[in-house]
Specification:
Pfam families: adh_short (PF00106). This protein is α/β, with parallel strands linked by helices. The chain is built from ten helices and ten strands.
Length: 319
């Protein structure tokens, strides 16, 4: 593909998108989609940051249709409530961008449901959210789900450790972060396989931003951590968040984007550049591990994709 930029986004008029996360890449996604004519729902846990994000989108795209909805990906009850509200308000959804994340807290933390924080927020929260919104997506026009992964998913230590999935026995921040992002990539690929098999009509893709200038490191590892200081003083090594968002936006909007594909930057080992097809780590292609991860995720979250129906009046409540 040639060099691709936000001006190449086709009109998104008539499409509705949910984007998780109120800053960084998520904010850039929301601005670009709104500017292209989409109705954008920004989902995050902090009301003040949500209002600030909406104001920034409206400043960048004055005629945009954008709103904020409370969603805490570290809380299954919040995810269920978000899904219920959207299903009550609308009949369809065209785009879901599973973007929000936490990265490398120095000490092990857990979600409200007792999941390790990175796995619980980055992966299990988005797994549950996608299950909640599946009926709406199935009613959408050319519906797409884009789930954010990371170049950390290809780290040597990144694997799905079923023997210690929640890092209760050993917590290594980067290893656990890599596992969560590998799980996100495997979920995106497995969702496409299941959509094809069940006839859901959903295109599922994954994307990663390379190394981008966001607050993910300072907020996670801490501003005074080695990585936080690296982000502060070696800022020039990180591409702008708007550039890092391009692979996600390409996957979300381009007619050339295909389900079951992984997108990332095209230069310097996929750390920066324009959107291109990214290399999928061999571990992410193991369909047996992916199927097992899906089953485990349904059990942990209490969510099932099998109950989805294009007829919303017949959709049973999610468990």
């Amino acid at each position: 593909m040639t060099t691709w930029k936000t001006s190449d986004i086709p009109s998104q008029s008539g499409r509705t998108a949910v984007v998780t996360g109120t800053g960084g890449l998520g904010l850039e996604d929301a601005i670009a989609l709104a500017a292209a004519g989409a109705e954008v729902i920004i989902a995050g846990r902090n009301l003040a940051k949500g209002k600030e994000a909406v104001a920034k989108v409206r400043q960048a795209a004055p005629d945009s249709s954008v709103c904020f909805e409370v969603l805490d990906l570290a809380n299954i009850e919040s995810i269920t409530a978000f899904g219920s509200r959207l299903r009550a308000k609308r009949q369809s959804l065209d785009l879901l961008i599973n973007n929000a994340a936490v990265m490398m807290p120095p000490q092990r933390k857990v979600t409200d449901d007792g999941f390790e924080l990175q796995l619980g927020t980055n992966y299990l929260g988005h797994f549950a959210l996608t299950a909640q919104l599946l009926p709406l997506l199935r009613n959408g026009h050319n519906p797409r789900v884009v789930t954010l992964s990371s170049i950390a998913s290809r780290n040597r230590d990144a694997s799905i450790n079923f023997d210690d999935l929640q890092a209760e026995r050993e917590y290594k921040p980067m290893t656990v972060y890599g596992q969560s992002k590998l799980a996100c990539l495997m979920f995106a690929l497995e969702l496409q396989r299941r959509s094809d098999a069940a006839g859901w009509g959903i295109s599922s893709m994954s994307a990663h931003p390379g190394i981008s200038r966001t607050d993910l490191l300072p907020n996670g590892a801490g501003p005074n951590s080695v990585l936080g200081l690296w982000r502060k003083y070696l800022w020039f090594m990180f591409q702008p968040a708007a550039q890092g968002a391009l692979p996600t936006l390409f996957a979300a909007t381009s007619p050339e984007a295909k389900g079951g594909t992984y997108y990332g930057p095209d230069k310097l080992g996929e750390t920066r550049g324009s959107p291109a097809i990214a290399k999928i780590p061999e571990r992410a292609l193991d369909i047996n591990v992916a199927a097992r991860l899906w089953d485990v995720s349904e059990e942990l979250t209490g969510m099932t994709f099998g109950a989805a129906s294009t007829d919303l009046s017949n959709v049973p409540p999610f468990s």
